[in-house]
Design goal:
With 124 residues, the protein is α+β, with helices and mostly antiparallel strands. The protein is 37% helix and 27% strand. Helix 2 packs antiparallel against helix 3. The N and C termini lie far apart (29 Å).
């Protein structure tokens, strides 16, 4: 079983995260700080959430991942992928689709390889 997590944007592979690559102490500290900051509250869709649930944190991180990928921020994209891979160890792919101002996100937990036509995206 592969320990790779892929991120696709509009059906095109953007990032590949390898869970087998160990994190440095600096990366672990960054992720811990990121999680602590989210515990203090996050904003999703213009609404402030004072005590976000794990699912809301994941939604927030994916939204920021999309922004980081579109702005070619490799370091931030990598950190956000690390958070998602650690939070959701069963996650194999994140499929993000953008069309007509709408964004849909699908989390795939059962595929080891990229197959863009396997499942229709779910709107969030």
């Amino acid at each position: 079983m592969s320990n790779i997590m892929d991120v696709l944007l509009n059906g095109v592979a953007q990032l590949e995260y390898d869970r087998d690559k160990p994190l440095t102490d600096l990366q672990k500290t960054y992720l811990s700080n990121m999680n602590s900051k989210m515990d203090d509250g996050i904003e999703i869709g213009g609404q402030f959430i004072e005590k976000p649930k794990e699912s809301e944190k994941v939604q927030f991180v994916v939204a920021n991942l999309l922004v980081a990928m579109k702005s070619d921020s490799a370091g931030l994209s990598s950190a956000l992928c690390t958070y998602l891979a650690d939070t959701m160890p069963e996650l194999k792919q994140i499929k993000i689709d953008e069309a007509d101002g709408e964004v849909s996100i699908e989390f795939v937990v059962y595929e080891d390889t990229i197959n863009e036509n396997s499942v229709a995206p779910v709107k969030h």
